[in-house]
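Predict the 3D structure for this chain.
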Amino acid sequence: MTRSIFVLAVLALVPITAEAGSPPAASPEDVAPSWYKAGTVLTWGVDAMGRQYDFVVTVKKLGPEIEFDWRMTEPANKEGSVKMTEAALRDADRQHNMFSGGPLTLEDKTTVWVSQAVLKQYRVKMIDHRIDTGSGYQIFLPEDEAIVPYKVLVDGVEQEYKVLHLKADCSGGDDEHLWILDNLAAPVIFKMDLGWTIWLKEIRSAK
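Done. Predicted structure below.
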């Protein structure tokens, strides 16, 4: 019953019929994955210029607002918590990608997730696809093969998901890449390459 209410709420965010310049209707792929619930633990590998560790997120709350606890394993050895407001999850096109520890509330940025607005802009023809990953706004465009498969362990079993692969050309000459789960109900960042790399490698669903 709870899941049905959540799915209906997501579908209500998107127009039923697509008009010129407006997002298309939600597709069956926009139903949240079965693991997408409070209590789920997601683990990303991190390679920060040769410094390797895990970034572990425990989801505490999902809905109009999202809350999670996080920790970094050795050698980073940090921990904290994040709350993202309803406005941030709806509209933000800026990301928070540097963690120092402790509690954090994001009202105009997202982290680990992208907002509904960011994902929706790639479902219509728009000129300016802007995202700020932490070093200023850049134009991110889909790669030639925009939707690509991504494999991750879910409760010990390899699963495959469709992710949106985006690329920006940085002024310094280093390309930035984002791989986002192509799902309006759960627009989680599966992988990023911002000069340092983070990639989702394991999901353990709530029991």
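The helical segments are 2-12, 86-91, 116-120.
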